[in-house]
Specification:
Blueprint: E1 3-10, H1 14-21, H2 31-34, H3 38-47, E2 51-56, E3 71-74, E4 78-81, E5 94-95, H4 98-110, E6 116-118, E7 122-123, H5 125-134, E8 144-150, H6 160-175, E9 182-188, H7 205-215, H8 227-234, H9 241-250, E10 254-266, E11 269-279
Parallel strand pairs: 1-9, 2-8, 2-9, 3-6, 4-7
Antiparallel strand pairs: 1-11, 3-8, 4-5, 10-11
Helix pairs in contact: 1-5, 4-6, 6-9
The chain binds 3,4-dihydroxybenzoic acid and fe (iii) ion.
């Protein structure tokens, strides 16, 4: 049976991608953020996951305001990053795992979710930046990608509970897959940030710390705020925490926090990185 070995939660600010392209990891502005990936690199080198299931939001590359699915699941054998306007385009392709994607889709539809199924899909900075952070260098990515896009852009957005429940369904799907892949779950985006309007630059350290404190031991605490509360608390893009809430839902067994890093600001964003290990529930 395939196994979920852990969760990686990280901001996906496009400027991080530019810093990688310009080799600025040790620059004083960037170092405190990039240093947060040292434990993740060590953990990935030891765990060697075969597949990454990535909960993220598309920012106008594959979907736009004219057609915006609440949930979309990639079912391709390859994905590519394209520049949707930030001036970065990473060349390394992402290998997919269409068979496991279809298994996840079958399972979540049986659990009464209705995702858009994408047999062709481009992925934006919200997938590419986390992959580049986790597996720096020029070699092909050692881990396959299954992208799951959540609408955090065009209101009405799904509720935190709905995202958490989707994550749980995805977690159960992976655990019931007959292969022997090791799977890591990603949640990308956040933490608090707002890019436009009168509150541009809004950051809420108290809310971010509340999320970081509860993510591992009590993720349901994050469900007490509805989507519009989160916009108010964390900013109009801070609502990307929905991706983290879904990813945490996929870790249905016991989790342990192995690393956590919080650094304000990167660009307009309170940047955070968390690594959780995961072991299966022991069935009595
Ligand atoms: C920024 C953050 C994001 O999450 C994003 O998608 C784009 C830009 C920023 O802070 O610059
Ligand atoms: Fe974003």
């Amino acid at each position: 049976m395939s196994k979920i070995c852990g969760g990686i939660f990280t901001s996906h600010v496009p400027g991080i991608g530019k810093a990688i392209a310009q080799n600025l990891q040790n620059d004083p502005y960037w170092k405190p953020f990039f240093d947060g990936f040292d434990p993740i690199h060590r953990w990935l080198a030891a765990e060697k996951p075969d597949v990454a299931v990535v909960f993220y939001n598309d920012h106008g590359l594959n979907f736009f305001l004219d057609k915006m699915p609440t949930f979309a699941i990639g079912a391709a054998n390859e994905y590519r990053h394209e520049d949707e306007g930030w001036g970065i385009a990473f060349a390394r392709p992402f290998q997919g795992h269409a068979d496991l994607s279809w298994h996840i889709i079958e399972h979540v539809v049986a659990s009464e979710f209705d995702p858009v199924m994408c047999q062709a899909m481009t992925v934006d900075h919200a997938v590419a930046v986390p992959f580049e952070l986790c597996w720096p260098g020029k070699d092909a990515f050692p881990t396959k990608l299954i992208p799951i896009a959540i609408n955090t852009v065009q209101h009405p957005l799904p509720s935190p509970k709905r995202c958490h429940d989707l994550g749980k369904a995805v977690g159960r799907a992976i655990e019931s897959w007959g292969g022997n892949e090791k799977v890591v779950i990603f949640g990308t985006g956040g933490l608090s940030h707002q890019l436009e309007g009168e509150r541009a630059g809004h950051i809420n350290v108290d809310y971010d710390k509340f999320c970081l404190r509860n993510l591992a031991p009590d993720p349901e605490a994050l469900l007490q705020h509805d989507t519009l509360d989160i916009v108010e608390l964390a900013g109009s893009q801070g609502v990307e925490i929905l991706n983290w809430i879904a990813a945490r839902g996929a870790l249905t067994g016991s989790v342990r926090e192995l690393a956590s890093n919080y650094h304000v600001p990167i660009s307009n964003t309170a940047a955070a990185t968390v690594l959780l290990s995961h072991s299966e529930r022991v069935l009595a």
